[in-house]
Fold each of these.
Amino acid sequence: FWLKCPGSWLLLDFLFNHTVRSPCKPAPKPPRFVKMAMRMTRRLLSVPAVKDFATYEAMKTSGTTMMVGFFNAHFSTAGKMYQSQFESMAASYPKAKFYTCDIDDVPMAAYDAEVTEVPSIVMLPLGLKPDGSPYDKSDMVVVAPELARFDQVLPRAKSVIDGTTVIENPEGQKPWEFDPATGTTMPPHQ
């Protein structure tokens, strides 16, 4: 959208109030409090993004009671639509560690979490069951869209989180070990 004017080109500015301005005149600066408000909202609403497998593995010993991951891909429209709702759901569960993961960036994490479709939410309880036995990988729950019902992934994941009781392990969590039989990681043998 270029418009010709005497001596210069005008640029339609989509970044600041959709105003038309000349490139020779300086752009008006937004008020300082607006910049701070935008910066604060981005920080508060975002959950950490896993960018490598080591970060994913380190979360298993972070001392939280549950890992809840939103596995997505850059090509998934449904994932883009529901990621903000996942981030707002994270505020409801302070004891759980929420994260997002792009399956193309960290395919080993997606394989370890047994993700077969995006977007999927994976819940991995860490700690002890109410009977005192430790949770392991067989207790991991993967909520994937069934029959392309993407709108049901978040409510189903929320009900799984609400229905899982985790007791913190007083000994702390130990690093998980690589299992050559499955090609994934498993909790340390007790």
Note: The beta strands are 2-5, 8-12, 20-21, 49-50, 66-72, 96-102, 120-125, 141-143, 177-179, 184-186.
Amino acid sequence: DLQTLADITSARRRRRIGSGAVVLERSKVFFEHDADGQVVGLVQESGSSPSHHLIEELMVLANHIVAQRLVAASAATTGCDPSGSNATNKQSEASIRNPLLRKHPDTEEKVKEKVLTVVQDELRMIAPREVSLSELLDWCKQRMTAHAYEAVCADVLKEFSEAEYIVADTAQDGPSPDDGHWALSLPTYMHFTSPIRRYADILVHRRLAHIIQGNGEEQLNKGGVEGMDESA
């Protein structure tokens, strides 16, 4: 049931945060309208509700598991047909051996320095230095108002590097430790399920369908591109 699922995802979330995952408090603001469609106020919605955490944790877990599956896969690489047919292009995309991962560089020290710069003077003087960023943020959260802490989170976010798509080299001993997702504290991550459907996500879907079906090339020849899309 939902309560059991919430308990499981909460445990996973605590485990990730305990291993160094960074969680920033950010709320969303919406316009409130009257019956005539006129703006009459603002509504602030917190992103820290149990339901938000449940959905977020399951999405992150799905992305991580698919990344692990694609990294572990050893399907043979197929070249791209120069004729450029849609079926052949999709087939070659699906059989590319190296996984398309989402890499987020580690900027922990820069972000910690920023946190200590933006908090109030009285907190800066007593803030712990020899702790992880996650622990420092939690320390600040316990001593600041909700609005002040959210403002700090918004400010320090500027010190995060942007995550990027990479084609991981798994020829030796798997992806490099530097290819992981720092903020999520995961060694492998990619976009498999996401509110935003990117072309990179579609490549991941095609690749996963190719692996699950066992022989993506044969399935394409039998069922056509539509069959592969349906499986993805």
Note: The beta strands are 28-33, 39-45, 100-103, 164-167.
